[in-house]
Design a protein that fits this description.
14 strands, 24% strand, Ribosomal Protein S5, domain 2, five-stranded mixed beta sheet, alpha+beta, 2 domains, Alpha-Beta Plaits, 316 residues, single chain, globular, 10 helices, five-stranded antiparallel beta sheet
Length: 316
């Protein structure tokens, strides 16, 4: 059994301070590149083929939880053929946890509800974006959860994304790794910015422009939302963006014709919204040249929005 997952861009929280009693709320999209491609199959004993130390550690934790849940030791071989980098803003941890958990349950012939799978994976403490895009792909909106609640963030909306709207994704080679414990600390440093403005921009700007297929307006409102969200996290990350490098690349993409641009989650991944064809290719080459001129190392690629979420491939 093989499972292939999307990655994701986290486009921003709506109310991380929870002034109305519901905390967080977020928007995001599934990406087709990069992705996890993981194989799970029966074997004589448990074995895990993972070159990445963190992936190995996370899979070992998942296996222990599933063994406790099933009340038996697993005898499976887990292999990773393609991966999403951790702690860069692409949602690697959520996709890995859900994929490994679901693949193991399928191989073991265990019936499960979606809620059981999510609980076993241990994901969705704040944002519901990673969970939503894993199952459904597309553009997603969740409205958070009640404060002090153990419930998952409530997924409210999933929309298709125009196939000719692409994201130019840039991963600069800078170390901004925000692991779980550090994230908890940083979330205590949020500024009290008017979340009503973010909500208004999402409801009356971003969503209708997506439904109407207006890339210029969608990009405009996306950039405005990113600015507002960055102000909330100003003290936590030392500015509207996580690093001056991230800010410079975003501003360059906007200057060169990206319809909208921003930072995913804690970064350092940043992105620009473009149309497919020459517009996308030309901007990608200009960004590469800009980074070379500024002596910024990193990766640059074009990604489509994954429209379906994870997919399974049965052996044979």
């Amino acid at each position: 059994m093989r499972v292939k997952t999307p990655s994701r861009l986290h486009l921003g929280f709506i109310d991380p301070l929870g002034k109305l009693g519901r905390v967080y709320g977020s928007i995001g999209v599934a990406l087709n590149i990069p992705y996890w491609l993981i194989e799970v199959k029966k074997d004589e004993k448990l074995s895990i083929d993972a070159n990445d130390v963190e992936a190995l550690y996370k899979i070992e934790k998942i296996v222990k939880k599933i063994e406790d849940y099933l009340g038996k030791k697993l005898r499976v071989r887990i292999s990773i053929f393609s991966s999403i980098p951790f702690h860069v803003g692409l949602g690697a941890g959520t996709q890995l946890s859900l994929a490994v958990t679901e693949a193991i349950l399928k191989v073991e012939g265990v019936s499960y509800a979606k809620e059981d799978l999510i609980k076993l994976s241990g994901r969705g403490k704040r944002s519901g974006i990673g969970i939503s895009v894993y199952f459904n792909g597309g553009f997603v909106l969740d409205v958070g959860k009640r404060k002090e609640s153990d419930l998952l963030p409530l997924s409210l909306l999933r929309l298709d994304f125009p196939s000719n709207w692409l994201f130019l994704v840039v991963l600069p080679d800078i170390d901004l790794r925000v692991h779980d414990k550090l994230e908890e600390m940083k979330m205590e440093l949020l500024r009290d910015v008017n979340s009503c403005e973010i909500s208004y921009l999402v409801l009356m700007g971003l969503l209708p422009s997506l439904v109407e297929g207006d890339i210029e307006l969608f990009g405009k409102y996306l950039s405005m939302i990113q600015q507002k969200v960055g102000e909330v996290f100003y003290d936590a990350q030392g500015g509207v963006f996580a690093d001056k490098v991230c800010e410079d690349i975003v501003n360059f993409m906007l200057h060169k014709g990206a319809y909208g641009a921003g930072q995913s989650s804690w970064g350092p991944v940043v992105y620009g919204l473009v149309e497919g064809g020459d517009h996308a290719i030309n901007l990608m080459e200009e960004v590469k040249s800009f980074m070379a001129f500024k002596e910024i190392k990193g990766l640059v690629w074009l990604a489509e929005v994954n429209p379906v979420g994870r997919t399974f491939l049965q052996e044979g």
